[in-house]
Amino acid sequence: MKTLTAIWENCLTVIKELVSNEQSYTTWFKPIKPVKLENNVLTIEVPSQFFYEWLEEHYADKLTLAIRREVGTNARFEYQIPVDKGSALNGKSAITHIPAGNGKYNNGDYKNSFIGNPVAIPGIKEVSFESCLNPNHTFANFIEGDCNLLARSAGIAIAKKPGLAYNPMVIYGGSGLGKTHLAHAIGNEIKMLHPEKRVLFVTSEAYISQFIEALKNGNAASFSSFYQTIDVLIIDDIQFFSNKDKTQEHFFHTFNHLHQSGKQLVLTSDRPPKDLTDMDERLLSRFKWGLSVELQIPDFETRIAILERKAQAEDIELPREVSEYVAHHINTSIRIMEGALNSLVAQSKLVNRAIDLNMARQTVRSLVNHVAPEITVGFITKMVGEHYRVTLNDIKGKSRKREIVIARHVSMFLCRKITGKSLTEIGRDFNRDHTTVMHGCTAVTDQMDQMLQFKEEVSEIEKKIRMSE
């Protein structure tokens, strides 16, 4: 016997074939949840009155067709609409069951009882409000570093006192740096600390799409009414509001209502508010009322921590040399870096082989435009020079300054160790004879034996050189 979930998944498969627009399918059907199937009646839960009206007007026939294909020719469906605490009549949190009208809007007693709030409907029993938050994105697995310290701290402060601290909060930064993760983490933390709060996460694309449909069907007032009931509104990628004048106008009024009511707004963007183009100046000024924080590219150590935390969460053994290699070569996007780890895990399971450095090299080459440099005496000397902040000419010259001599000796030592060239061959590259190279290598070895800090420094330079392969 099929489970309710399996039945609904099959219905969604049919609906996806019937709905030609991928965005419409994602916006209007993915949020639907199956509740129960009794006596050939499938009850589905939709987020709001607005969703119900729009589905009835446009897709009730497709819903009916899909459900009858899966359940039987006599099957039908009805809607269930959640109502949050405090918004129902008599202060009771409730839902209502509304028989599907086969594509025709039900204009009976229910319509007459509508009082302006799309979720203020007398009903039967309490259900939770769907916040559309990803439960996997929390502060617990958001790795802290210098790149995000201010944003993370501000997010925690907001979660403790939503609507009072930093309102609105605008999180901006490049793609794949954790803006969406942090936004979800704020929402999840608020839900945990303040379970009575209505928290809603929505992408800008979904907001725009819903608003357009509301305009087309004369439901703009209902749409506005729904969003004005939210306690914490999180909108991802507000830069896509650019050139959407009607949407901006609507959001301007929604923003004002929520802000004046002490409700929290959290917005993400790929650029700071001052750089947003084709945006209403009134909105831009409001974005600057609170706090704008940037998520920067995480440093090398933070990238390693992110990879190893994710591997640990998934119970994967990830050698340190692999995490360092991936973090070294993928340094602009956490999303791509985590994609590399997912690829490594998949390969490891498919071929039943432990993750190693060779596998990491192949994976990185498939994800980024990495051309491995040839490890030559010149390349090694350049890397050493960058570490000690001296030039190639300084190293190969005759200066006896201490920092230059150290760089020269370390270069000789690593050239000998990594390339395997003879002392004479290395000497030619440094304009020295083989005895000078031997002295330099011996000096480095002796100092490494005596000073742990120097030994670690040389090892770190060697590691960077080898990771360039």
What does this structure look like?
The protein is an alpha/beta fold and 469 residues long. The chain folds into four domains: 4-113, DnaA, N-terminal domain (GMP Synthetase, Chain A, domain 3, 2-Layer Sandwich); 149-294, Rossmann fold; 300-367, Orthogonal Bundle (Helicase, Ruva Protein, domain 3); 377-467, Chromosomal Replication Initiator Protein Dnaa, Chain: A. The chain has 21 helices and nine strands. The protein has helices at 4-18, 22-28, 49-58, 60-71, 109-113, 149-160, 179-193, 204-216, 220-227, 245-260, 281-287, 300-313, 320-329, 334-351, 357-367, 377-388, 392-396, 402-419, 423-429, 434-450, 452-467, and strands at residues 33-38, 41-45, 76-81, 96-99, 169-172, 199-203, 232-236, 264-269, 291-294. The strands form two sheets. It has a five-stranded parallel beta sheet with strand order 6-7-8-5-9, sandwiched between helices. Strand 7 (232-236), helix 10 (245-260) and strand 8 form a beta-alpha-beta unit. The radius of gyration is 30 Å and the shape is elongated. The model is unreliable at 85-94 and 102-128 (pLDDT under 50).
Task: Average the pLDDT over all residues and give the rounded result.
Answer: 82
SS-derived structural category: alpha/beta
Helix and strand succession? HHEEHHEEHHEHEHHEHEHEHHHHHHHHHH
Q: Could you tell me how far the N terminus lies from the C terminus, measured between alpha carbons in angstroms?
A: 55 Å
Q: Mind summarizing the main beta sheet?
A: 5 strands, parallel
The strand line-up of the biggest sheet is 6-7-8-5-9
CATH architecture of the largest domain: 3-Layer(aba) Sandwich
Q: Which spans of ≥5 residues are poorly predicted at pLDDT below 50? A: 85-94, 102-128
* CATH fold title of the largest domain: Rossmann fold
CATH class of the largest domain: Alpha Beta
